[in-house]
Specification:
The protein is α/β, with parallel strands linked by helices. It has two domains: 283 residues, nicotinate phosphoribosyltransferase (Alpha-Beta Barrel); 116 residues, Aldolase class I (TIM Barrel, Alpha-Beta Barrel), CATH 3.20.20.70. The chain has 16 helices and 23 strands. The protein has a seven-stranded antiparallel beta sheet with strand order 15-14-2-6-4-21-22. The radius of gyration is 26 Å and the shape is globular.
Length: 504
């Protein structure tokens, strides 16, 4: 049923992930035209700070789970413009037919360095809207050029990890396996989803490549086609048991589920006689609540109390919750399509905004804010960090709030947090509380300063963190809003910049 690789390095042991292109052309064209304009106008040495965040919790939930750090580490570490990249850029034309980029700019790119500092929250960190989950500081051209790739590498994994965490919460203490490769958006989407689902809390995957590359436990049963290839279901189960007597989980709904369970029991008795055991059955259609209870009764009456009942069939957190509420006798959940496609939300909606800039040689930063008629779309200015407060230092303490602050502006030992969208929502925190600053160094001047994370450790961290949040925040529907706000000095600065901007 499951296989655990004995000694597999989950961070690839230096191998390149087959889905992670290191080409600098994994970007939108306007990033390159802006870079060209910065270079052409003499602003190549301007310094900038960009912040990556998202505006709304996915799935109308109360939190998100950050994922994608290893992909960022791998991508940025190997990033460069190859000769083929430059040759392609040299073919691009402007509307009037002239070269889009001149030769001197392409020569500049030929030995271009992404000499930026990048700070990032750890893999598997529980995060909330408007918080900086990744920050880039350095020369404006490389900082700008990273935007598209960073959003691509972070947003989808974060969405999948969040979906997986929600499903794991619904499943309670029962295992959840990701079975979605065949329904994923291509090989790259499938592999990314398998990794992120594991980080988010899934116990394993059906994706063998993910198992090989990342050390994720793999699991599988058999398909309906196996049963259909024999004249009788009993014959199919018997043949499978002879081939894999130590790995027998029978898919019992090819023709009739109750009959299938009885055939599984008959073959299970043969396995017992030979010193093996029936590991379980899988239900993939029909009334899972009723059929699982009936299957459990039949298995128990036949002496197979330890045989697991695995359920699949378009499951998600809502269906699992409903089945549990109905008393379904399901031991293991196999979740595919709705997990890897993040149904019903196809994207996270991450943004990468300029939050500060200064000319070369200047010491002071100019804070920047993007203003919108929709307050939720107004960005946060500054050199941002996020501080998470906890009620105590023990394992039973609870997270009580996150404060977004400017590292150069914060003062004192008592602070007021102000909600970035609703200024009437406020919370006081003090320096003598237990807290952690979430953003940690990942790159300095383009060189990695941390190792890739161990995925199993990240998964354990997600499950541990979720235990530290109030149950209301983890509700699947209409969750309580976790306090996450701007430190009052930063909020005042943001307000000042907005008012100044609206006068223009």
């Amino acid at each position: 049923m499951t296989a655990n690789p004995a000694e597999v390095n989950p961070v690839l042991s230096g191998k390149k992930a087959p889905y992670c292109q290191d080409s600098a052309l994994l970007t939108d064209l306007y990033q390159l035209t802006m870079a060209y304009a910065y270079w052409k106008s003499g602003n190549r040495d301007k310094e900038a700070v960009f912040t990556l965040s998202f505006r709304k919790n996915p799935f109308q939930g109360g939190f998100a789970v950050f994922s994608g750090l290893n992909q960022v580490l791998e991508y940025v570490s190997n990033l460069h413009f190859s000769s083929d990249d430059l040759a392609y850029l040299d073919t691009l034309k402007a509307r009037d037919g002239s070269r889009l980029f001149d030769g001197e700019f392409l020569e500049y790119l030929s030995d271009f360095r992404y000499d930026v500092d990048i700070d990032c929250v750890p893999e598997g960190t529980i995060v909330f809207p408007h918080e900086p989950i990744l920050k880039v500081q350095g020369p404006i051209i490389p900082a700008q050029l990273l935007e598209t790739a960073l959003l691509n590498l972070v947003c989808f994994p974060t969405l999948v990890a969040t979906k997986a965490a929600r499903i794991k919460l619904a499943a309670g203490n029962r295992p959840v396996f990701e079975f979605g490769l065949r329904r994923a958006q291509g090989p790259d989407g499938g592999l990314t989803a398998s990794v992120a689902a594991y980080v988010g809390g899934c116990d394993g995957t059906s994706n063998v490549l993910a198992g090989k590359l990342f050390g994720i436990p793999v699991m599988g049963t058999h398909a309906h086609s196996w049963v259909m290839s024999f004249s009788e279901e009993l014959e199919a189960f018997t043949s499978y048991a002879r081939s894999l007597p130590n790995n027998c989980v029978f898919l019992v709904d090819t023709y009739d589920t109750v009959s299938g369970v009885k055939n599984a029991i008959e073959v299970g008795n043969l396995l017992k006689e030979e010193g093996h055991e029936l590991l379980g059955i899988r239900l993939d259609s029909g009334d899972l609540a009723y059929l699982s209870v009936e299957a459990r009764r039949l298995l128990d009456e036949a002496g197979f109390e330890n045989a697991s009942i695995i359920a699949s069939n378009d499951l998600d957190e809502g269906v699992i919750t409903s089945l549990n509420d109905q008393g379904a006798a399901i031991d293991i959940w196999a979740v595919g399509t709705k997990l890897v496609t993040c149904d019903p939300q196809p994207s996270l909606g991450g943004v990468y905004k300029l939050s500060a800039e200064r000319s070369a040689g200047e010491k002071s930063w100019r804070r920047c804010v993007k203003i919108s008629e929709q307050s939720i779309k107004t960005s946060n200015p500054g050199l941002l960090q996020v501080r998470r407060f906890r009620s105590g230092s023990g394992s039973d303490s609870e997270f009580i709030g996150d404060m977004i602050f400017d590292e150069e502006l914060i003062q004192g030992h008592e602070w007021l947090m102000v909600d970035p969208v609703d200024f009437t929502r406020r919370k006081k925190v003090t320096a003598d509380m237990h807290y952690t600053d979430l953003l940690e160094p990942a790159f300095r001047r383009g060189e990695p300063v941390r190792d890739p994370c161990n995925l199993a450790d990240a998964r354990d961290s997600v499950l541990s963190q979720l235990g530290g949040f109030h149950s209301g925040i983890k509700r699947l529907l209409n969750p309580h809003q976790y306090p996450a706000g701007l430190e009052s000095t930063l909020h005042a600065l943001k307000t000042e910049l907005i008012l100044k901007g609206r006068e223009i």
